[in-house]
UniProtKB/TrEMBL annotation:
Listed name of the protein: Rod shape-determining protein MreD
Transmembrane helix among keywords: yes
Organism name: Ferrimonas sediminicola
One Pfam entry name: MreD
Membrane-spanning ranges: 40-64, 76-98, 110-128
Its biological purpose: Involved in formation of the rod shape of the cell. May also contribute to regulation of formation of penicillin-binding proteins.
GO BP annotations listed: regulation of cell shape
Amino acid sequence: MPLPQVVAAWRPDWVLLVLAYWTLALPHRAGILTAFLVGLLLDVLLGATLGVRSLALSVVIYLVALQYQKLRHFAWIQQMGVVAMLSLLSHLLVFWAEYLHSGVQLSWEYLKPVAFTPLLWPWVFWLLRRTRRHYKVK
């Protein structure tokens, strides 16, 4: 069931949150290739230009994979800041690619998820960590 239009603009970037967690938790199992493939699938599901979200997710997850040892030791509030910057980068990369392809214009509506995505990071982190430990995923 689709979200109402008022709430849909604030929809967090769930894919980014989940990929960032798994890259932090298990960098040898989830990384750039996973982000690329998930991005392709997301482009197909959304009917978007093929490769746009693959590029954005690959770049963002590359940065997470590059610094995963540091990021693991950050406090949750610092991790929220990093997630906010990663979400902003992802949305700007998608906007840039869409702008080059079809000339879309940037509006504040487009950046609303950037404000809401980091607020969910502590809960997503806690839930996925609990799930990973319960099922002993290594």
